[in-house]
Amino acid sequence: MSENKAGGLPKFQSLDELVEFFETHDLGDYLEGLPEVSFEVEIQEQIYLYDNEDDVLEVYFRDRRPAWTIELTSNIMISIDRSTSQAVGLTFLDYRELIRSTPWGVRSFPVTGLADLPVPERELVLRVLNQEPVSAWLDVAIVEGYRFRFYSSDINEPPHMHVIRGDNEAKIWLQPVEVEYNYGYNSAELNRIVRLTEQNEQLLLEAWDAHFNQ
Fold first, then answer.
1. Pairing, β 86-93 against β 68-71
2. pTM
3. Cα–Cα distance between 126 and 85 in angstroms, integer?
4. Residue 112 sits in the same domain as residue 151
5. Are 52 and 91 part of one and the same domain?
6. Mean pLDDT for each consecutive 10-residue tract of the chain (214 residues)?
7. Are residue 105 and residue 117 in the same domain, yes or no?
C-alpha cells in the first residue's frame, strides 16, 4: 500500500489492504477526495386493474399504450409492443376461475391463439412468454401439473422435453414423440405424458425453435 501524497486515500495493492486500512480509518474523512459517480435505475411499476363485477384482471407492465394484442386462450390475452419486442400487459377473463386450484396443482390451458400467426410473430410471442415479467405470471411449460422444459445444454440434440413432476422425470423426443428414458413415473402416468406431448407437440417445437434458433 502506498501513501497518497495529496492527503487522500492511499493506493491499495489488494483487497486485504483495503479492509485492513478501514479497520482503523473512517471513510467519511475521505469523501471529498472521492470521484462523483452517476447511474440510472429503471423502476418498472406494474399496474393492476380489476373489475370485480365482470371478473377481469388487467396487468400493465409499463404505461398503458397501444399495443399488438394476441388471444393466447379464450381467457388470456397478451399485449406486446412490437417496436421493442416487450410485453405491455396481460388480460385475464374470469380471473377467479383461472386461479382456482385442481388436484394436480395450478390449472393449465392449451395455448390455441398462436396457430394462425406467421412464424416470426409466433416466435416473438413465445420469447416474450418465456421472459420476465410475463413468465412471473404465466408458465407456458406447465401442462396439467407436469413441467415441460429443456436446457441450454440440449442444443446439440434433436428437439425434446424433460417432463418433471416432483422427483420424477422423463425425457421425450418430439419428432416423433417417443420416450427416451423414464425415472419414477408409472405406466399410466407415462402414457398420459406421451398423450399430452402429442397434443402440444407443435407448441413445444416452436418453443424449442424460438430458444435455440433466435
1. unpaired
2. 0.56
3. 11
4. no
5. yes
6. 58 76 76 68 75 92 85 92 92 89 66 78 83 80 77 88 90 94 94 90 82 72
7. yes
